Amino acid sequence: MSGIVGSKLNIRGSGLVGSLGTDGQHLLSAGAGKTNVFETAAGGGKVNQVVQTVMNGTTSGNNSSFTDISGMTCDITPSASDSKILISVSAIWSGNASYSINIRWVRDSTVIFAGTSAGSRPLGFFGYQGVEARGCQQIGPAEYLDSPNTTSAVTYHLEWRNQCCSNTHYLGRTYNDNNGTEYDVRAASSITLMEILA
Questions:
Q1: Half-sphere exposure (CA, 13 Å, Cβ side) for 193?
Q2: Which of 41, 59, 111, 162 is 20 to 30 A from 5 in CA distance terms?
Q3: What pLDDT is recorded for position 5?
Q4: Domains in the chain, ordered, with CATH?
């Protein structure tokens, strides 16, 4: 085989290449015994940008209505209106064993990734009853592919509420938060946003 760039594509056994692809194209096999072809790479499904918020500290809440979780907010500006946003959340909560906590995702002012309405039940992506051992924490990881349909900046944030405002719940720490014990860990939480091109 000479490796010479010639006038015909795929002269079998000769190593001749008849043409070159343009920028962004790939040389692909068309099958056994057939001429190879240049084709443009698919554009969909590519990650265009990634942004992240990490909450290393702790925060608390004691509201019976949904309110923002301090530090758990992340902004992104999609480059195209048909892009999707893959949201990943990892968060650590704790609370009193006597009360429940509800958590939901919100895009700007719109609740997303929530259950179906059923009576007076709260809607969200995560909820739990506080654990009896107050050194314990609950982890709430989740992913959701959202379609904001905009090229304007959007804000994703977590909100929480409890069964009764007399109960305090926490992010990033245990309920007791005792110093010098191996089980009262301080933990980080995060929100990661990835723009997925159409």
A1: 24
A2: 41
A3: 47
A4: 1-41 (no CATH), 47-196 (2.60.120.1340)
